[in-house]
Design goal:
Helix content is 78%, strand content 0%. It contains eleven helices and no strands.
């Protein structure tokens, strides 16, 4: 158990370091929920370190609460990333776009839920639900990263943009988590689960935190505008009279008449 305590302490310090860099860079202005998630991670891991050492009987109850809060925050972060990617055209989109993104992430999570259930190992019944939730969000983070990386050209984002940096970090340690789960399925000894988690998931997350420290320590690249084709597509998807009026006023002939 000494290794658990050391890892929790290291992760808490690393998260606090990332939080300090985010604060210094003013990332809370554009990604407030992600900053909250990192700050929460630092505080919760520090609390988990104290509880595991001095109040072991309360460990499971606290871990349950932490998992629920962590999942809610992660859901919010994924929605925030999708909304932040649309920053160049957000003023032109309907107010209901955020609600649409919430529903989209929900639907994606629902579709992933039964798939994630196939990875649940033969552990205690009370632990299966927690594991199922964690695996669902693990796959959801990977999907978020793959979508953003695949459509980075259309979305006019690169590896120096904060949104893709955050998604890359989330995707990296989630892929490590999925690999660990696959190794779990090949294990016959359940006692080895814990140590594999420590070596894989914890160290993978530590690697992600180091990546974020390096990424956010550099100045953010100025966000590029969407291509005319992508801008037009998003406005069409937004629909409604407002989008039509905005698209119309963007035409050169209309702008020239307005100036006259």
């Amino acid at each position: 158990m000494a290794l658990d305590s050391v890892l929790l302490l290291v992760l808490s310090i690393s998260e606090a370091t990332v939080a300090a860099i985010l604060l210094r860079r003013g990332a809370w202005r554009t990604l407030p929920l992600f900053c909250t998630y990192i700050a929460w991670g630092a505080a919760s891991d520090a609390a988990l370190f104290v509880i595991s050492g001095w109040f072991p009987s309360a460990y499971y109850k606290y871990y349950l609460i932490e998992t629920i809060v962590d999942s809610l925050l992660m859901f919010s972060v994924l929605v925030e990333l999708a909304w932040s990617v649309l920053r160049p055209v957000r003023a032109s989109l309907p107010k209901a776009t955020v609600l649409f993104l919430v529903i989209l992430v929900c639907i994606t999570g629902i579709l992933i839920w039964p798939i994630a259930g196939m990875t649940v190992p033969p552990i205690k019944p009370e632990d299966q639900l927690l594991f199922h939730i964690q695996e669902t969000f693990c796959v959801l983070r990977v999907v978020c990263f793959v979508v953003m990386a695949s459509f980075s050209q259309l979305l006019s984002i690169g590896w120096r943009d904060r949104e893709l940096q955050v998604a890359t970090g989330l995707g990296f340690y989630s892929i490590i988590g999925l690999l660990v789960t696959l190794l779990h399925s090949q294990q016959g000894d359940l006692t080895a689960y814990h140590w594999l988690d420590e070596a894989g998931v914890s160290l993978g997350y530590l690697g992600t935190l180091c990546y974020w420290v390096i990424s956010f320590a550099t100045k953010e690249q100025e966000r590029k505008e969407f291509s005319p084709q992508m801008r037009h597509l998003l406005l069409q998807m937004g629909g409604g009279a407002r989008a039509s009026r905005i698209a119309l006023t963007d035409l050169p002939s209309v702008r020239s008449r307005t100036k006259e």
